[in-house]
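Box 3.1 A note on notation
Throughout this textbook, protein chains are presented in two layers. The first layer is the amino acid sequence; the second is a token string describing backbone geometry. Keep the layers aligned when reading.
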Amino acid sequence: MVSSTQKYYVFGGKGGVGKTILAASLAVKFANHGEPTLVVSMHPAHSLGDTLEQDLSGGKIVPVNGVDSLFAAEIGHVDAKEDSSSFGSSMRNMLGKIGLGVLADPLGKNKLHEMLMKTPGLGEGIAISKLIQIVELQESNKFRRIVLDTGATGHTLNLLSAATLMEKFLSMANKAVNVASSYPALKSVFGKEQIDVEELRQQIARVRDLVQDPQLTEFLIVTIPTVMAITESSRFHASLKKDGVPATRLIVNQVLPPSASECRFCAVKRKEETRALNMISADRELGGLKLIQAPLQDVEVKGVPALRFFSDVVWK
């Protein structure tokens, strides 16, 4: 992994399988090799901050204590009320500019805000806007690697769908503004909106293209050795392929380590684990992925020293 050439590493999978710990450990591994690295959590909870034992609640990029060249940020815990209110004001302004303010005025500011709060994909859309800022920061070459810790499977798929839908909507909006701008009487009114809409569309398209480019991005699916988790991972990989996202590795976390003696409980668990691992090789979605097994630890992996130890065990 350390010798790989991609800039972006995206971790996805079922909730509770250890994506955050694995993402943080890979980031620590990169940083320990002297590569400026940013690890970003798009998880709604503060899992990354808890894993690093550091407060990341401000949503800003901050240096990680105890690791040179490592920075972290949490962007998944959005203030939906504040962000949707700002977006609602922009929407009202745009509707007014194109002569459709009559549609927004009867709703009033609070009603429009309430409708936006219930809009499917709003949280994902806000996360995309924050991810765009991260991408633009990467293009300034401040970081050599960026590791993304996504939410559970459904959140990740919603995020990818939201990016596609937002780009299509903005493309249509840009065409409408272009048509309106062709009239001399309206050109001065729509000049700035034309630039803003197209710029935002290009930013979102850049994020989508980045995630779909195997030369820049590697998507890693994380699972655990249970039949249910393997089955969901198979469906997840099928959905990723449908969205044009190339996944190359499957990380099976919490694998039981070898033992000289087996209690009855351990023997049953190992039998169940072997059945799940055999499913992977036979599965048409997962069988072709590079397999990494991360052993179950006897203590919680939390804090930089533990992450450094875990990274040496998992990432070769």
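Residues 97-109, 115-122, 185-195 have pLDDT under 50 and may be disordered. The two ends are 6 Å apart (CA to CA).
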